[in-house]
Design a protein that fits this description.
The complex is a heterodimer of chains A (360) and B (260). By secondary structure, chain A is mainly α. Chain A has one domain. Chain A contains 15 helices and 2 strands. Chain B is built from 10 helices and 10 strands. Classes of the chains: A mainly alpha (360), B alpha/beta (260).
Chain lengths: 360, 260
């Protein structure tokens, strides 16, 4: 340290004590505890339909959107291929594992097929990322969208591995220790555990050197290079991590529906992930899950609601689109941004300066 | 054997920074033409010149933000002409920016911590730094050295201009710098802040050399031992501060009317 002798004032012990940002941020937050407890006891209060169709589906979509939030919120890279990576992972589970299409599936046990799917999907996403990091802004969006569209048409037309437009059906789900892990309640807990793991991993990494440096790359890539960081390598590593998260969601998705077909990896579905992340808010890891809940609730119930109003039920996308417009228009940091501003307006003035902690 | 001998002879040659015939073209415009500069280790030099003289382009070529169109750049004997910026930084080169280039979304402490992390291992670490993390202490010390301890948990976007300039310097002094490029560090500073800046510069350890671009002669000539004058992308004159100050040609070109 060249300047050590220059610092006349020794580090005060008080400085070390007050470093709140470096501990778990939610541990003192009662709302977070309440949400955690509700999620844990959900099987007691929700029917099988709610458990899987609403909450498990929300968590799976939330994990996919979380991978986008990590790239976009911390890295400033908007990737539209996160659903494609999840879909690739889902296809690989079906191809390497057991399914109704015996001529395609290799019939590996799930504990071999899943790591293989995760590894291949992570490699796929990392390669796509390595292409995308050579560009900035709208060109990143275009390249990742092109990868997503290419994969969609490829799965439609390839019969040898992806079984064309019919996809791969009756994919086997894990049974071990005498438990059918695709039964509603065990599957819900599997999904919840993976979602929690991904959420806390993203939250933790955002304050670790890798995540901090990624935020530095987002704020000022040129300066990061002038501090000794290899900016592109850092971006590719971020894609690798986000791809792994998306791949986990893909495994859960194929177990959830027990099938995978090109419809699940369409360009529209890729954009849905972006909408989920933006509506929820890309400044914090909780945002994508809130966005996913809103999306799933609308998708499930808007139909009945619209029919009751005398409108075509398939117009639920119109509601989502209007909601998306409203969010982008009034709150660029999504629903969590609205929530934070509302909380700050409720608080006494003296508290406010502590409230505006940015992401990370 | 050969490479060791070569390296020893390179060290023997003794220049911290050696530019030979560096030219940088932007289309038809030559921002730098045939610039040759040698700076000894620990030497402190000012680069003067009017706007558009090529001073900042010179810095960008040295750090690798742009590759020179022709010519070679050696850093402590090693040819770094085609190295990416981060490789040069890891070898002990540092720079500051004329317009502060900070991370506005992060705290002061995190900005300095990133600077310390960038020149050490574990840039990709997924583990948070603990309470006794050596780099965290290094960052604490740097924050104090540039008088920012009181605001270290504030986001950089909330800092005053003068504080941002001080942070800019802190980022360039992380790790073990061997040579620093200061691009107008006094821009927009109050007289008090200028005095603090001079104190920071003059109290740098003797082995750290630097080049400073500075329009304020009171700052520039008090913290350097040699001066390079640039004009239209070329080296116009080199000498001691007093020689440059009293040179009639230089006065006409640069110090002439505008000197306060």
């Amino acid at each position: 340290m060249s300047l050590t002798h220059d610092a006349r004032v020794a580090v005060r012990p008080a400085d070390v004590a007050q470093r709140p940002a470096r501990t778990w941020p939610e541990i003192n937050n009662p709302a977070a505890w309440i949400v955690a407890i509700i999620l844990l006891i959900m099987p007691l209060i929700a029917s099988g339909f709610f458990l899987i169709e609403i909450f498990a589906t929300t968590l799976i979509l939330g994990i996919m959107a979380l991978s986008l939030m990590f790239l976009a919120g911390y890295g400033g890279m908007v990737s539209l291929m996160q659903l494609t990576i999840a879909g690739f992972s889902a296809y690989m589970v079906a191809v390497f594992g057991v399914s109704g299409n015996a001529n395609i599936s290799l019939g590996w046990p799930w504990w071999l097929a899943v790591p293989m799917a995760l590894a291949l999907a992570t490699a796929f996403g990392t390669l796509g990322g390595a292409l995308a990091v050579r560009t900035e802004g709208i060109y990143t969006i275009m390249i990742t969208l092109a990868i997503g569209a290419a994969f969609y048409y490829f799965t439609n037309q390839n019969w040898a591995i992806f079984n064309g437009h019919t996809g791969i059906n009756t994919v086997a789900t894990p049974h071990f220790w005498g438990v059918n892990w695709r039964a509603d309640i065990p599957f819900y807990y599997v999904v919840l555990a993976v979602a929690a793991l991904c959420y806390f991993a993203v939250e933790y990494i955002s304050r670790a050197p890798f995540g901090l440096a990624l935020q530095g790359v987002r704020d000022n890539p040129r300066r990061m290079a002038a501090l000794g960081f290899n900016v592109n390598a850092h971006r590719v590593a971020a894609y690798a991590f986000a791809s792994f998260v998306a791949a986990l969601a893909g495994v859960l998705q194929v177990w959830n529906y027990r099938q995978i077909s090109p419809g699940s990896v369409s360009v529209g579905a890729c954009i849905d992930v972006l909408i989920i992340a933006v509506v929820g808010g890309i400044t914090r890891p909780i945002g994508p899950f809130i966005g996913a809940l809103i999306f799933v609730l609308l998708r499930t119930f808007a139909l009945d609601f619209l029919v009751r109003l005398g409108l075509d039920g398939n117009r639920f996308r119109l509601l989502i689109g209007l909601g998306f417009l409203a969010i982008v228009f009034w709150s660029s940091d999504g629903v969590i941004g609205l929530w934070q501003r509302w909380r700050q307006s409720q608080r006494p003035r003296t508290d406010r300066q502590n409230g505006g902690r940015g992401h990370g | 054997m050969d490479s060791v001998a070569q390296r020893l002879s390179a060290v023997g040659a003794g220049a911290a920074l050696e530019l030979r015939g560096v030219t940088r073209l932007f289309g038809a415009l030559a921002a730098l033409t045939d610039v040759t500069i040698t700076v000894r280790p620990g030497e402190r030099r000012a680069v003067l010149g009017s706007n558009g003289a090529g001073k900042t382009t010179l810095f960008n070529c040295i750090t690798g933000d742009f590759a020179p169109s022709s010519g070679t750049i050696r850093f402590f004997g090693e040819d770094v002409t085609h190295f990416p910026p981060y490789e040069r930084i890891r070898r002990g080169l540092r720079r500051t920016y004329q317009i502060s280039a900070l991370f506005p979304g992060l705290t002061v402490q995190d900005n300095v911590y990133l600077a310390c992390r960038g020149v050490s291992r574990g840039r990709f670490s997924f583990l948070r730094p603990g309470q006794n993390d050596a780099l965290m202490h290094a960052a604490d010390n740097l924050v104090q050295a540039v008088h920012l301890a009181a605001v270290k948990d504030q986001r950089v976007a909330e800092l005053a201009h003068g504080q941002q300039r001080q942070l800019e310097i802190a980022l360039a002094l992380a790790g073990a710098p061997r040579f620093v490029l200061f691009d107008e560090p006094a821009a927009g500073l109050s007289p008090t802040e200028r005095a603090e800046l001079i104190e920071i510069l003059t109290s740098l350890p003797a082995h750290i050399g630097y080049i400073i671009i500075e329009h304020d002669m009171d700052v520039a000539l008090r913290v350097v031992e040699s001066v390079t004058m640039m004009h239209n992308g070329r080296i116009f004159k080199e000498g001691l501060p007093e020689e440059i100050q009293s040179d009639p040609e230089v006065q006409e070109l640069y110090l002439g009317g505008g000197h306060e």
